[in-house]
Write a structure and sequence with these properties.
268 residues; alpha+beta; Multidrug-efflux Transporter Regulator, Chain: A, Domain 2; 9-stranded antiparallel β-sheet; 3-stranded antiparallel β-sheet; 12 strands
């Protein structure tokens, strides 16, 4: 028999941990001296302590360890922990890839953009698809779309927070004769017109980049985001979007315009 101090030394655990294992019913002393309260452990309990430490180092909770030692739901508990570890490894591997990409950008002094993965929300939108000659034509065409839909749907309201974006059906960056679909998120389906339709867009994972400045320089942002996707092991799953946060309608200087590029992706 070992006193608790010697038992803790042999088992490489603290006395505090042994008291805790006793309190939760995981490992109780073999005997407690009624006169002085000394706790004694047996040689056989070293094996059980070793098992507890092994399971704890794998990351099992105290309750899970108790169940495993008592032979309860062993397969279920182990499978759950295995899945948790696999998910952690996948997440850590992705973080490593992204930090390597970040380090490379710092060394090459190309830190104008930062990529963020986010879930784009499900939404109802009204939309119009068209071929536009260039980015400058947006300033005339987009307000006309708003006027047309408002005439047919005077009570229709934009979703809060507002979310208007353009989907690029060319699948690549172009600066003229661009195949776009303008979309504005709204709170409900409305009355369609000849050219404007309503539809629901499902939520999707996307790589996003904030671009500040003129639309004419968006090509640099697209080059960055497509390289990021390739370098970090993602695959483009749908057409790119541009979400307009600040623009001509609320900023006088185009250097203050803020556009978020959104490219739907999935992990390879």
């Amino acid at each position: 028999m070992y006193k608790i101090g010697l038992f803790s030394t042999i088992g490489k655990v603290t006395i505090k941990a042994l008291h805790y294992y006793d309190e939760v019913g995981l490992l109780k002393p073999e005997r407690i001296d009624e006169e002085n309260g000394y706790r004694y452990y047996s040689t056989e309990q070293l094996f059980k302590l070793h098992q507890i430490i092994s399971l704890k180092q794998i990351g099992f909770s105290i309750e899970d360890i108790k169940s495993i030692i008592n032979g309860q739901n062993i397969d279920e508990i182990i499978d759950k922990r295995k899945t948790e570890i696999e998910n952690m490894l996948s997440y850590t591997s992705e973080q490593l890839s992204r930090i390597n990409h970040y380090i490379l950008e710092m060394r090459e002094k190309v830190m104008n953009y930062s990529a963020v993965l986010k879930e784009l929300p499900e939404c109802i939108v009204y939309s119009k698809r068209m071929i536009v000659p260039n980015y400058n034509s947006y300033f005339k065409l987009i307000p006309e779309i708003g006027d047309e839909i408002k005439a047919s749907n005077p009570t229709l309201k934009c979703r809060i927070p507002e979310y208007c974006f353009i989907v690029y059906h060319d699948g690549e960056y172009k600066d003229k004769d661009i195949d776009i679909e303008y979309c504005e998120a709204v709170n409900e389906f409305g009355k369609e017109t000849k050219n404007i339709k309503f539809k629901k867009i499902e939520s999707v994972l996307a790589v996003t980049v904030m671009h500040k400045g003129s639309y004419n320089t968006l090509g640099k942002a697209y080059a960055y985001i497509f390289k990021w996707i390739e370098d970090n092991g993602y695959t483009i799953s749908d057409k790119p979007r541009e979400s307009y946060i600040d623009g001509i309608w609320n900023k006088e200087n185009e250097s203050d315009w803020l556009t978020e590029l959104q490219v739907p992706v999935f992990k390879k």
